[in-house]
Fold each of these.
Amino acid sequence: KEGVCIDNVSFKYPNSSRAALKNVSFNINPGETIALVGANGAGKSTLVKLLCGLYRPDQGSITFDGVDLSVINKDSLAENVSVVFQDFMLYNVTARENIWYGNVKRPQSDEEIVLSAQKSGIDKLITTLPNEYDTVLGTLFKDSEMLSVGEWQRIALSRSFFNNAQLVVLDEPTSSLDAFTESRLIENFKAITKDRTAIIVSHRLSTIHLADRIVVLNERGVAEVGTPSELLEKKA
Ligand code: ADP
Ligand code: ADP
């Protein structure tokens, strides 16, 4: 079956007494963008971790184009699934090298790197080190070359642009951004999810509106599924 099938997935952390995910099922059609929403603790981050193979479901399965994501090896997983984590997971090397190291399929040339950096508007910044950035990781920065959180985020997005993975997962891509920076990045999200199957975990309405459908999680599993207009109009 094409697209993503999340079938009756349950998961409990070893040190926890209650399930983080309980009987979660939904499908994502090929090319579709899903917004994953739900209260704190509903299991959104856990589902992201299962999607990128950090954990395996205790029960149920997650397949992408018919392939079980919990059984394929790490390299093929990384070729199929590109994740932009909430905390960016950037290495303390230049943006250029972040785009390089962050991908299993290595860039073939510097031009390729510059191109993916251009797509998220950071091509002028590719020789800057993350520790010259803002305080997200609590690192000191040199004020001469300080980058904003938004620029940092865009480096993480560039990595995903370079990666041709057909499934892209954005975990709270705008949570640390102000509304202005977010609005400038919306175009990047559109570009990154275009022609790919995508999941965006987000609370922000402007980001949720990008999705074809919204999946609402709660502690009992999938609470609701619907288009943005169906769900948001109902709430209004
Ligand atoms: P969300 O991303 O929707 O806020 P999470 O996936 O982070 O939800 O959390 C789902 C549940 O799993 C919560 O009850 C949370 O406390 C628990 N949880 C998350 N991460 C861990 C962990 N590493 N160890 C134990 N419990 C965890
Ligand atoms: P998010 O904002 O994505 O929901 P959280 O702030 O809930 O993430 O979690 C931050 C980190 O703390 C994650 O790595 C998560 O796995 C971990 N975590 C969350 N809840 C617990 C818990 N009950 N026990 C241990 N670790 C947890």
Note: The pocket of adenosine-5'-diphosphate (ligand 2) is lined by residues 40, 45, 86 (CB under 6 Å).
Amino acid sequence: MIEVSNLKKSFGKLDVLKQITFDVNKNDVIAVIGPSGSGKSTMLRSLVHLEEINDGSIFVSGDYLVRDGIYSKPQEIKRITTKMGMVFQHFNLFPHLTVTENLELAPRMKKKESLEVIRRRSTELLQKIGLSNWAKAYPSTLSGGQKQRVAIARALMTNPEILLFDEPTSALDPELTGEVLQVMKDLAEEQMTMIVVTHEMGFAKEVANRAIFMDNGEIIESGHPAELFTNPRFDRTKAFLSRI
Ligand code: ADP
Ligand code: MG
């Protein structure tokens, strides 16, 4: 579904991604772990073109977003990035819009579907995340867990083929992480393809079929979570795992 090869990205003199290569198959749930500053967010952001890479290729279900460092045309980039939905650590909801308006903004702007169709989907998704009663509420009145569930529903509104999560529970009080992880678990059970940057090892073990350990802009190792967490092959992985 996604093929990333030899991805390179630097900010000035800082090489943040060095030759990142991995692929994502349909229905994969991939947990990306690694210390702060290792390039996890930059890698995810590159996939949805929130960052421009310096070299390498990103291939998304049949189309190149970027090939050997050369980006596709803007229209093509837009078409490819809409195949992916992104959920951020800090929710990034629009504070001046209600929950329903947050959900409907992107599909409405696209003008490809009737409001009726869009409304049906937002209603369904609010039901799915258990927030039907909050349709007209503003984000500031929601708990962190509720906000993140809304952000997930919003990402689903455009029917993405793959969802990217960047530390979706890191900004939440511990008692609120469970409800967000549950929504993600439900999505995995529905065969949603997902890449999840997370420190929730329990979730990674239970839900992911592959874990990738990144350090200092590189993928150090990857494998089945149970195997990688219990039998890491490299010292850097061992050191990281012993700290969390
Ligand atoms: P992680 O998500 O693993 O914590 P990031 O991808 O956020 O890592 O950051 C990787 C490195 O890139 C860090 O050293 C960070 O300071 C740097 N970095 C990230 N974004 C920028 C930016 N916009 N400008 C300059 N440096 C950045
Ligand atoms: Mg990050």
Note: The mean pLDDT is 96.
Amino acid sequence: MRVLSGIQPTADSFHLGNYLGALRQWVLLQETHETYYMVVDLHAITVEQDPKVLRQRTRVSAAQLLALGVDPDRSALFVQSHVPEHAQLSWVLECQTGFGEASRMTQFKDKAARQGTEHASVGLFTYPILQAADILVYQANEVPVGEDQRQHLELSRNLAQRFNRRYGKTFTVPEPHIVKDTAKIYDLQDPAAKMSKSASSPNGLIELLEDPKRSAKKIRSAVTDTGREIAFDPEGKAGVSNLLTIHSALSGQSIPELEAAYEGKGYGDLKKDVAEVLVEFVTPFQDRVRSYLDDIAELDKVLARGAERARAVAAETLSLVYDRIGFLPVV
Ligand code: TYM
């Protein structure tokens, strides 16, 4: 069974939502699946990027994945642009996608609205189709992502099914692998919104590579509510519930265990402990990232090896697709 997933190199650091929603699952799935993980630089350029910064962030992203436990001996860890078949399959799939269908993608609508639709790139519009190509080119069975990717996954499934109907069984239809408890981590300052790098306040976002003291401070100033009771109630106590989710995911204690442990205690106690488990997690993580970045030559070699493995699989799918749609073989 194959697994594929990707993450954008569009920030100086991954954030806690990326880790708890998706990357933790990437690491776990290595135990049971054939895994393909990539840094999606092609997706990154759908909005303007400074070339030097993009190159740096791509390496820092790869280093973070290694530091989180992606094992390059088990997983093919690579950079999307190193495998040209993604872009090649994307074109074919664009020709199977309705304009209206692509127009309904809510992430496109949100991002385009933020930039003004006139200025949004055509790449931003076709973004989810490239994502479908990423997944289908590996014949992936499962795709570990956070809740915000569900609609893109649905498009990938639809495209796979449509192509299979039209041209005969070609693609595996992928399933999203979304772990409910941590599928959506919320902004610490606005617990109705998802934690995101485009958050309105930087205090709502925990970056894995920021100074751990700063993270601890953000946790301590997280928005809660005027009540006193520490209970998991996402509707009524969104902020407290988010903190419980983060604590539980990092400490391994279940939510009911935590609720029992905090009986009679206050929000300040909970925040102090969440800050502590977070600092304990990020401090050694940051050391590992630094050590991967100390040897760029080795890091680049790991990525080259990953791309080679990935390409072997991707090329096979692409040649089947080209044949199915009636392209003449190269003789
Ligand atoms: P990206 O780079 O925005 O985010 C990477 C992963 O983090 C998850 N995530 C969250 N999970 C829980 N709570 C949050 N607040 C939160 N914020 C982000 C995302 O769901 C994602 O899994 N389009 C993708 C990248 C991509 C991809 C792919 C993913 C490109 N090709 C193929 C899977 C398969 C994206 O922008 O993720």
Note: Residues 296-325 form the longest helix (30 residues).
Amino acid sequence: MIETKDKPELTGSEINGEECIITIDKVNKWYGDFHVLKDVDLEVFAGEKIVVCGPSGSGKSTLIRCINHLEKHQKGSINVMGHELTNDIKDISVIRQEVGMCFQSFNLFPHLSILDNLTLAPIWVRKMSKKDAEKIAWKYLKRVNIAEHAHKFPAQLSGGQQQRAAIARSLCMQPKIMLFDEPTSALDPEMVNEVLDVMVSLAEEGMTMIVVTHEMGFARRVADHVIFMDEGRIVERQVPEKFFKNPENERTIEFLKQIH
Ligand code: ADP
Ligand code: MG
């Protein structure tokens, strides 16, 4: 947990009485000459669920990687829970502890058991005792329904089980925000739902979530807002009902035709 002194100042980040925990303001990013994010603005409130979709290469992964500073932006500002993400940021470990991330490719450590994957960061980053870390790990292993696989290595688990282990690993750090980058796109179809179910239950418990996904059923069920990105810009942001029934942007309309 971050100390009270590190808690975000609500002044300036509070809109209509709601706490804005991520504020992205006119963010621009380049990879060399390639302008990948263009004037991206986004506010995320505590407990809000945002689904991000859009064509491949539109900047979705880059955007969410900027939020936990895995990628650096060059212009504009990103503020996460009161911490401004600058190039010389000193409290990046606070950001990494508060913002969990799950990737398409699970990224579990192959040489560690599932249990050891889950306890590694709490022991080394949060300085927890092994006993306390294991207690939390078991809680989340049960929560994602893979407790019986705790002593196996990642390669011994199915893709769906590995992704649930990866989610549990993030939860062990007790983050306030979870970022998901196409968490189900590497899975065989029959395993997609077991991962989405875990994400739905997280959402129902009030986790703040930004999810890059093309699982539109999930978006309809869980999202407060759906964002559509194209060529580095957020071109549409709507509540799901409007996004699916009556999108405004031409590109969104085209995109939705293709995936339905
Ligand atoms: P998306 O997740 O929407 O598919 P990405 O954010 O991964 O899009 O990528 C956006 C664009 O930036 C793509 O054209 C991609 O090739 C390019 N890109 C992504 N990562 C890098 C990188 N590390 N270096 C150079 N170009 C990159
Ligand atoms: Mg991507």
Note: The chain is about 35% helix and 25% strand.
